[in-house]
Amino acid sequence: MKSRSIRVLSRALTRPALVPPQSQSHAAAPTSQGQTQTRAHRQPQQQRPYSTHPPNARLNLPTDYGTTPLLAHSSQTALTNPELPAEARNGTTKRMNLFQAVNDALSIALAEDESVMIFGEDIAFGGVFRCTSKLADTYGAERVFNTPLTEQGIMGFAIGVAAEGMRPVAEIQFADYVYPAFDQLVNEAAKFRYRDGACGRSVGGLTVRMPCGGVGHGALYHSQSPESLFTHIPGLRVVMPRSPVQAKGLLLAAIRSNDPVVFMEPKILYRAAVEQVPTMPYTLPLSKAEVLKEGSDVTVISYGQPLYKCMAAIEQMEKTAGVKVELIDLRTIYPWDKETVFASVRKTGRCIVVHEAPVNAGVGAEIAAAIQEDAETFVRMEAPVMRVAGWSIHTPLLYETFNVPDVARIYKSIYKIMGF
Amino acid sequence: MKRTCLSGLSPLTATRRVAQKSPLLVLPVKTSASQGRRSTGSLSQRPDAKHVSFPGAVKSAFCNTMRFEEPSTYPALSTYRAVDQHGEAVDPDFKPDLSDEAVVKLYRDMLTVSIMDLIMFDAQRQGRLSFYMVSAGEEAVSVGTASALEKEDVIFCQYREQGVFRQRGFTLADFMNQLVANRKDPGKGRNMPVHYGSRELNIHTISSPLATQLPQASGAAYALKIQRMQDPSIPPRVVAAYFGEGAASEGDFHAALNIAATRACPVIFICRNNGYAISTPTLEQYRGDGIASRGLGYGIETIRVDGNDFWAVREATKKARELALQDGGKPVLIEAMTYRVSHHSTSDDSFAYRARVEVEDWKRRDNPIARLRKWMENKGMWDENKEKEARDAIRREVLKAFSDAEREKKPPIRGMFEDVYETLTPDLEAQMKELREHLDEFPDEYDLSDFEGGRGSLDK
């Protein structure tokens, strides 16, 4: 059992300021030319019912994807990734955004394996997010095709295709629309191998892609992050990439995996996240977390888009107070990499989980419970596990800013956990 | 001699013949709810009977020729027109049942929707709205069907039926308040633009998922039917449910028709078959004879109409409402053929998957507004001057309503926590308090100036 004195000590050691000083990037004064431009552009923007950021904000600034250390801005950074196979490391890179990286992975999969097929609503002309551009032209309408508008049909069809040994990559147009397919996923895909027993058949070839998460104005039906509904289902692997490099490597791993995979793509990153992506085929390991930044005082765990906000909050916190924060990208949300998480939390003694989905019964609950169940980790805890997540509400149009975790809320949680 | 199945024997006459030839054979062919349940005991069959009495096919005659039915050998269901594209009446039995003023009012509704659509589409392009969907080419379907319904009827829309809202009395201010999500929006700023709803007008609030509204419409219709059985002083009411041909591929569509037929629900299913579900053309959506043929499969009275013909749409809906209330209630299906002239939404560029010339051709060939206008001009109740005046006036009204709506404050942010449950749960109360404290601690990080009551709305 932890003694109170250690807690008091930890409180005394690290006490950052609650409100950070004016940040460098924001302090940059606009030029006279810049001011007139700003005015002209701000007028309509101020009337926008979404995506605003207040003029004096120091934390809640738009994510700067052009400079974030979470993306490989140079070829060299991309190719030194130790997880890459040697051929990929010795190859070239190409600048891609996330939808192009998904497209690249799909194209490689179609080219290297004729059992791969891709289908979903509106995918033939390239898909509503352009992830499947040119695939039908290149690989033919037999393997790349539009389906009628029926998610339960798409999923059941995909399961049948997979049951007969093919590798279908089914697209659900928005994660918000996956629910008609829930029965097929939960009762069929997830149970297929278990039910068949010694007969040995499975639908391991199945991958289901779906765009998820908030974009600022998606409201009730274009913003949801329903990953925890799938992480509750034994038999499904649930993956969410945070970047183009990951999207390519994890999607190829998902397609080659012999378990059904729910592959959730944060749609706000489709165009926003741009980086150098190795051109060779490669996979990144499933069920393996990535330590994005090492630190000794707090472990922040997230996946998908909130990682960028975590990073911004951590940068501010480290600047303000000498707190060293470790940031972990879960990547596969289930079955998740407990080893990496436990090792980190044993080191730091503090853990914050960040996700967009509602806090109740979310991924944060699973991680917090697992941490406190693991005796070796539990005894090292300096503070209770904290969660920064969406409130227990639906995803409202006007209030998205106040609902999804932002830099200020993550910053505050680090502050609070350090002061516990 | 071999008899070919079905030859010269429509299902209805077949039933009658059976009844005549086999007086001892009691066939429970009427299955409306008032008829009660079908008993298996009545399915006894005389030796050498010419007809099957299987529980699942009580009217089927035996035949000794093995032949598969080929859908392509059946003629496509015809498309009803009352007025042709020149504005001339083509149905000799068609008699307009509206005064000139009433027709002008409905025409203005169509015009209003079409002008509002153009302005709001541009407003989205200017960044003043996050999203918009136009209904160009489909104004007659929404306004025409709605005009044949009663105020008490209950409506479920998909999302492209602004004409239904307009016809039933949604004002331009109502549209604009929802579109800009201000404090007067009954949706409390929670929904995307065009997700209108009105309790007063008996139109349920729009939900983005497709076809989910359809089984709900069947259930709602059943509720109305039961309520009238329980209290005959309630006037007879129907439910109207709108959807596109793409939505008809969802499982919910099939469930809706089947359950409405089996429970004899007074519901009118109104399909706007506009040729496209985002990029997917009908050829990739279905291979049968449109959506109408499915109504027959579920045992539902069905009509296909020219969706560009306001009068055809209105007449069909009038009759459908009558049918839906007959025999204790029954579903009816209307398939209105139209063309989606514009992009799916402001998020879509349809020229990525269809030729510009295809759209231009359609626009030139026929248009529901132009057709009704020609009809009105032929009758001498409309002319170029009136048209210009109407268009100018509507344009001004839309712009004024838009600018008024933009000036209103946003609803209080407290609204994000409310209505999840009937009352706030302890969890939600705690979260609301946490957010309030957070906003107090970081006032510069959030712009609350637009929201009515600012942070204070989160206080108890």
Protein model, in words:
- The complex is a heterodimer of chains A (420) and B (460).
- By secondary structure, chain A is an alpha/beta fold.
- Helices cover 39% and strands 16% of the residues of chain A.
- In chain A, helix 6 (98-112) packs parallel to helix 12 (244-256), helix 8 (151-163) runs parallel beside helix 9 (182-189) and helix 14 (306-320) packs across helix 19 (407-418).
- The longest helix of chain A has 16 residues, at 32-47.
- Chain A is globular and about 60 Å long.
- Chain B has helices at 11-21, 100-125, 139-147, 162-168, 172-179, 213-230, 251-262, 282-285, 292-297, 310-324, 356-365, 368-378, 384-407, 426-441; strands at residues 154-156, 239-244, 267-273, 276-277, 280-281, 301-306, 332-337.
- Chain B has 460 residues and is an alpha/beta fold.
- In chain B, helix 2 (100-125) crosses helix 3 (139-147) and helix 6 packs parallel to helix 7 (251-262).
- Chain B has a 5-stranded parallel beta sheet with strand order 1-2-3-7-6, with helices on both faces. A two-stranded antiparallel ribbon of chain B has the order 4-5.
- Classes of the chains: A alpha/beta (420), B alpha/beta (460).
- Chains A and B meet through helix 3, helix 8, helix 18 and helix 19 of A and helix 14 of B.
- Chain A: Keywords: Oxidoreductase.
- Chain A: GO terms for molecular function: branched-chain 2-oxo acid dehydrogenase activity.
- Chain A: Its cofactor is thiamine diphosphate.
- Chain A: Residues 13-67 are annotated as: Disordered.
General form of chain B = globular
Using DSSP, what is the number of strands of chain B? Answer: 7
Structural category of chain B: alpha/beta
The residue ranges of chain A in which pLDDT falls below 50 over 5 or more consecutive positions are 1-16, 23-51
Oligomer: heterodimer
Give the number of DSSP strands of chain A: 14
Strand order of the largest sheet of chain B: 1-2-3-7-6
Biggest pleated-sheet summary of chain B: 5 strands, parallel
GO molecular function (chain B): branched-chain 2-oxo acid dehydrogenase activity; metal ion binding
Subcellular location (chain B): Mitochondrion matrix
Domain Dehydrogenase E1 component (chain B): 108-413
Cofactor (chain B): thiamine diphosphate
